[in-house]
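Protein details
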Amino acid sequence: MSKLAVLDELLELYYQLKYHKNQDIFYRLQDVQTWQKQRIQRTHAKQFAEKQNILMSEYFLNRLYGGPDFDALAGQIARLVKYAHKAEKLIPENAIKTGTAGVTLAILAVQLDEEVAIQLLEDYPNNPALTDEMMRLTYLKLNQGENRLRQLRLLDELGISLDKYMRSFMVQAAFKMCKGAATKYHFEVMYDFMQDGFLALKPLKSAEKFVKEFTAIERQIVDKVHAGDLNPFQ
């Protein structure tokens, strides 16, 4: 079986999301993603402000938590899967696995936030500006705790993979060699997605350490929400 086959399954899941065909959900999803990013920036302000963490924090917010160009990325991934036999000769196996993990996280983030958007439309049909209290109550109602914790476990695994596989000189050299082909065959968005990951990784001594500091705080928030804490995001 092709190592890229899992991407085909992920794309099928992504294109089944309701916001693609429903403008109301689409716009509310954007509100949720904006709130989510602002909340993450506020919660992790100290960690994100450290010089070596700036690029990785931007990668988290703009790539792994619902990037604005993910539709374009998904389209390019779909084209890549059609030519899997050729792509696998150019892209190192560990790079494929790590890239797939990043795509999985990006799609899961959209999937979970879409559930929140749909619930908000049901409970607040006039679309008021989002507040922490509205989000707290919606998270509780949806009972997303286990799925949010799964999201964090996958993120921890990605941090380990980044350190283990993506710092390799061979992997980075092979990736640089693909730039011409990426431009020629119009895979620039996908190339940029991975290149941003490499650039974000470079200043860090350990991606695993960065991720674990991030997920430790996020787990506390998930626990507080489902324990009934009235101010879980503080």
The chain has a mean pLDDT of 86. Residues 5-226 form one domain. The chain has one domain: 5-226.
